[in-house]
Amino acid sequence: MALKTPKEYVESIKRRRPMEIWYRGEKITDPLNHPALKPSLATIMRIYELSHSEKFRDLLTIKSHLTGEICNFYTVPLTKREDAIQKTRLARSLAEILGCCTFRCTGSEAISGLYPTTYEMDQALGTDYHERFKKWLLHVQKEDLTVTAALTDPKGDRKLKPHEQSDPDRYLRIIEKRNDGIVIRGAKVNQTGILLAHEVVILPTVTLPEEGKAYAVACALPVDTPGLKYVLGRWPVDLRVGHDETEMIDVGKKYADHQAMLIVDDVFVPNERIFMCEEWQFTPKLMEYFTAVHRLTAGACKSGGLSLLLGATKLATDSINVSKMSHVRSKMAEMGMSAETLYSLSLSAGFEGFQHESGAWIPNSLLAHTSKFLATILPFNAIRYARELMSGIGETAPSAKDLKNSEIGALIDKYLAPAKEGMTTEDRLRALRLIENLTRGTNWTAMALHGGGNTEAARLMAFRHMNLGKLAKLAEIACGIEEDESKAEELISERMGKIDYGPSIFKK
Ligand SMILES: Cc1cc2nc3c(=O)[nH]c(=O)nc-3n(C[C@H](O)[C@H](O)[C@H](O)COP(=O)(O)OP(=O)(O)OC[C@H]3O[C@@H](n4cnc5c(N)ncnc54)[C@H](O)[C@@H]3O)c2cc1C
To answer: Of 296, 417, 429, 450, which Cα lies nearest the Cα of 364?
Structure first.
């Protein structure tokens, strides 16, 4: 089992079959050398590099519970409380370095969701999904593959279920079952990191009734599978990217992620890569297990992004000598506390999880959804502060090329020179661009709001885990409507250390 070096990763991507990738009306033939993907490539290479770093490898690697060998953390399911805590710390730390998505998180969350679900399916139905899944997982671990997760269907009319849509392909579905596999058709939108990955795990995005069983499909595909088509999306500063080093200053940082639309144009999936095929009754469990891990991460990585934003805000306020003003300190304190709130929710979701009989560790859903919910809110308060404090020039600053121009550069430098000794105008511009990048330049804010589900989805799922009946009972005991006080002890003791606040699917 090997941990790939960045060079080995690049070699492995070069070995992929040619993929059909569209961008601004043209095909990208060489994703490794296309300017629009340059910051994304830097991100993924940095992650492979960090798994070899003496200071970082304890966070980025783990002993596989399947083989006992060291492998990348993103290739294993969570199997114990310590793993969940490691996931939080890893997500936060990487966000502080990269200021964007790692691409590998979602794949690991699909792995964490499928591991217990396939186990339960086999126990209940006598299928062999779990063994298939473990076999595929061993391949991922051995090759240290980057796996992304594709859930979000185009969805069409949100009021209708998948099988009720006017076009049945608005959600990805099975269109043919064969002895050796299935053929699937549909699309998945907003796919993070997929163009530089090795594998994509396809999962349903909603729970399904029996009439919608054709949509109950989970499988893994190499991203270069024939019939997969990609359309790379845009971000506000994408035309600044990659032209030359000076232009890159205007991007704000060298790391970014990308999102692409994935079109699955009648693609064959062999049996050994299918982990759910029409078992609609297991879609609620799959969603619960996946989101418990995915939404734990949502809080953790936004806390890292917030820390980075706070650091950039400190630089920007230093450059105009306001960083010690009392209202500025209060605002920065609030930004810092927002980061710690998200970090704590993520940590506690992992800590308060439970051991599933498959061996998986399932984070506490209520806390994980709460972490995601606040991740859609707290970054936006911090963004408001950062944009206020960096001053208007952060929104309208001239480009680095103008600053470096022999004719106009000296005048820009004269008028925009920072008030802080030792800081150059270029340093100031870089700090402002970093704030711009995080707040409106790339997809960090979109990730906070939508990635892993938006505010309402988190609120709804959190609410499902609040046992109001039980809380009302506790209130009745507290105010004397119910006289038998021992019932309170009974109710509270049931809750200790497990998810019993929740839908009946978690109850044995
Ligand atoms: C930067 C970024 C990265 C992403 N990365 C990935 C990825 O790697 N993989 C992946 O699979 N997905 C990814 N996503 C997708 C993300 O998970 C979805 O955007 C998110 O789940 C919201 O779904 P949606 O975009 O369809 O919006 P919708 O769910 O349609 O939400 C739009 C609005 O409509 C409301 N609404 C929708 N349905 C109903 C209803 N039935 N009743 C009442 N109100 C309703 C919502 O509450 C919301 O206010 C990413 C998204 C972004 C922006």
So the answer is: 296
